[in-house]
Design goal:
about 140 residues, alpha+beta
């Protein structure tokens, strides 16, 4: 069963699209029917299937999550205990818990079966740059 690891460099909070590299991986394995499992190997970022036509969607999602789960130095988050890696660390774990760390996307004849406006995104929740690893595993 084909498998690879994508490396995605982030520069801070935001959504980083990786539909192209995932599609490239699937296209090298043109089974009639397959399932792509996507898994992120970190606990302070997550994965999303989201609209990739209007960048305002990604900006609005980021703004929503920033309001939903503010940094630990915000007075509303004074109850947080885990602060070893900075004010954005525990909120990043919460955001990851509210979203997903794995996705399953059907594929057929070397193509992801995403909808017209759908893309695959790594959702970075930390303020500083990171190098993230995303595992792609194709099952026939």
């Amino acid at each position: 069963m084909p498998q690879t690891i994508l490396t995605i460099e982030t520069s801070g909070p935001g959504l980083y699209e990786f539909t192209g590299p995932a599609q490239d991986f699937v296209s090298r394995h043109p089974e009639d029917a397959a399932l792509l499992t996507v898994f992120v190997r970190h606990t302070s970022c997550s994965l999303l299937v989201q609209e990739n036509a209007d960048p305002d969607v990604c900006r609005d999602l980021q703004a929503f999550f920033a309001r939903l789960v503010p940094a630990a130095d915000d007075p509303s988050m004074s109850y947080l205990v885990h602060r070893q890696e900075g004010a954005d660390d525990m909120p990043a774990h919460i955001k990851a818990a509210l979203t997903q760390t794995s996705l399953a996307i059907p594929a057929a004849r070397g193509r992801l079966l995403l909808g017209t406006w759908q893309g695959l995104y790594l959702f970075e929740h930390r303020r500083r740059p990171h190098v993230r690893e995303v595992v792609l595993h194709l099952s026939a």
